[in-house]
What does this fold into?
Amino acid sequence: MAIILGIESSCDETSASICINGEIHSNVIATQAIHAKYGGVVPELASRAHQQNIIPTVDEAIRQAKISKNHIDAVSFTRGPGLLGALLVGTSFAKSFALAQDIPLIDINHMQAHILAHFIEEPKPSFPFLCLTVSGGHTQIVLVKDYFEMELLGETLDDAAGEAFDKTAKILNLPYPGGPLIDKFAKEGNSSSYKLPEPQIPGLNFSFSGLKTAILYLVQDQLKLNPDFLTENMADLCASVQSRIVSILLNKLKKAAKQTGVKDIAIAGGVSANSGLRKGLIEMGELYHWNVFIPKFEYCTDNAAMIAIAGYYKFLKGEFVGQDVAPMARMHL
Ligand code: KG4
Ligand code: ZN
It folds into this structure.
């Protein structure tokens, strides 16, 4: 019997989850709405909100799992990558909790956890598999050889895919986070309305900064001709942007699959909630006879269930850290 408490606080969601023998029994997420009016996450405000939310969030996760805190066998927490002040709150809480309860402490890499979210429920991919991890801060193609043995095959050279969504949304006058809004408008639009460039980056790396600039110039030019350009063409603009971001991502994934010969293909991270990416991956999977793995929506964006499940697999290996552990804003796979 192993009961793990998972804690996530790397960016703007405070989350706690209880995992019992590899099964998630609660996953409580306190979203910080405060950032919307600033057009992006304000690190100082994020730390403050984590500090306020962490104890009620953990209490609620314990309550929903119908256990008592004395039943918990270990606590796992996001050590990085992320905002340092935000990570410090989760890390300090986890250390204090482990010390008070006299239980082991488990450090988790947030990007590994996004990938390990695939082990929360069936169907689970088998090793080795490829994972396209796309979030607000990262865009990576990872060869996953085992639970904690991951090889980075490609990554973004500038903006992350989520950042490309959020920054273009800002140009389109949409509030933060723009990704889900672009997704929503795109459903009503025509994706071939605007021709946006596909960057020619060698290998399996990505670049999204050119796309952002192309959209900026397009919008600036059109606004001079028609001040209502944005409102009149929002759906077509969003559909065109989304379709280009998705094609950049999927073309590299296709290349990685060809290069490695791997047929189990997964996506993870906040942008894997995007309906265009999910649909595009399913279609590509049918074409190339891949086994495709797409997480449930609740496990795409930041959550502690993925930290708890990753903690469970480290618990089985007996991989613990001491009270001198410190968070890391930058942390490799
Ligand atoms: O993984 P995540 O929750 O946090 C980070 O670790 O960064 O990812 C957040 C990112 C944001 O950029 C957000 O706009 C994007 O995921 N996102 C989406 C969608 N839902 C969230 N992007 C496109 N379409 C969506 N449906
Ligand atoms: Zn994330």
